[in-house]
Amino acid sequence: MSIWVVSNKLRPLNPIDFEASDLVIPAGVENEFNQPLREPAARAAEAMTAAAADAGVPVRIISAYRDYGTQVALYNSYVARDGQAAADTYSARPGHSEHQTGLVIDLDDHGSCYLMGCFGETPAGKWLAEHAAEYGFIVRYPEGKEAITGFMPEPWHFRYVGPELAAEMRSTGIVTLEEFFDLPAAPGYAE
Ligand SMILES: [Zn+2]
């Protein structure tokens, strides 16, 4: 699968239970649940987290690759707890989670903004937003783009697209994959 794959609420992975084959555990970085990444994303995550530590803003991985079965269990538990409409606002349906691509990391700084919007205001969150593109990552769900990506801002969720595309998006100022690739906005599921 291309590292430029666009997964959103209108574009399920194909096949829907896609399993990444080149998975490795990133080396030398704290990884809360020891989840792997596709090899190029793992290498980039190693470089980015090492640079963050050098810059005085150490971070850890709190989520990476989640397979289809894991997402089924996670999503169903949210639906059971909060109902489907609420669950759809914060959790992707199985086959629609970018984590299933193996190209995504969620990061945290051991602070009080674990998986929260305020992570973007922390020194670590600011450093990552500024430097992620150098390592081939983008902030996939930026502020102000909810109607396009279908997700609330997630300043902790970094998607690997490779340094070339990340640099191109940065230089053109186009911050979503949907806009960059001229794809329809995906504010919600087709049902
Ligand atoms: Zn995430």
TrEMBL record:
It comes from the Bacteria. Gene3D superfamilies: 3.30.1380.10. Residues 37-162 form the D-alanyl-D-alanine carboxypeptidase-like core domain. One of its GO terms (molecular function) is peptidase activity. It holds the Pfam family VanY. This is M15 family metallopeptidase. One of its GO terms (biological process) is proteolysis. PANTHER family: D-ALANYL-D-ALANINE CARBOXYPEPTIDASE, PEPTIDOGLYCAN L-ALANYL-D-GLUTAMATE ENDOPEPTIDASE CWLK.
